[in-house]
Design a protein that fits this description.
Blueprint lengths: L19 E3 L2 H29 L6 H28 L5 H21 L3 H22 L2 E3 L7
Parallel strand pairs: 1-2
Helix pairs in contact: 1-2, 1-4, 2-3, 3-4
């Protein structure tokens, strides 16, 4: 049963994202893993930022180090998305999403180094949401290849 608009077309109000079948079980797993790690990294960054804003000045160094770890994870997300796209040329959303996250991540680092606190915190919250969205959407992919293939 579908919710329909007055013209008989399916409505977006009750839309559910369905699984998209793609080739490359290992690549789908790789994207999922790095997306979940990226999501967790943003939560760690938020925790360290909160500690810093709460007066714990010793958390600035771990926050800075974790920022570079996060950049590495985001770079790995782009690699996973490129490899998945090379195998499934019609699948462009992971590549577009990860490149967008990469651009925002470098912008985030720049804002932090420039001590633009309001923009840095705001973009950090946005990155947390982007990573959550990427991780959730990565789990809508279904691989049709055997487990032994990449």
């Amino acid at each position: 049963m579908h919710d329909t608009s007055s013209k008989g077309a399916p409505s977006q109000a009750g839309a559910v994202t369905t699984a998209q079948v793609v080739d490359g079980r290992g690549l789908v797993t790789m994207l999922r893993v790095v997306a979940v790690i990226g999501c967790l990294e943003t939560l760690v960054q938020g925790l360290l930022a909160g500690m810093l804003l709460n007066g714990d000045v010793d958390s600035i160094d771990p926050h800075g180090v974790n920022a570079y770890v996060f950049e590495l994870v985001v770079f790995l997300q782009v690699v996973a998305a490129v490899l998945l796209w090379r195998r499934n040329r019609q699948l462009t959303w992971p590549l577009r999403a990860t490149i967008g996250i990469l651009v925002f991540t470098f912008t985030q680092t720049f804002l932090g180094l420039e001590s633009s606190l309001a923009a840095h915190v705001t973009l950090g919250v946005a990155l947390c949401g982007m990573e959550m969205g990427l991780a959730m959407r990565a789990f809508t992919l279904r691989a049709d290849s055997p487990a032994g293939r990449a």
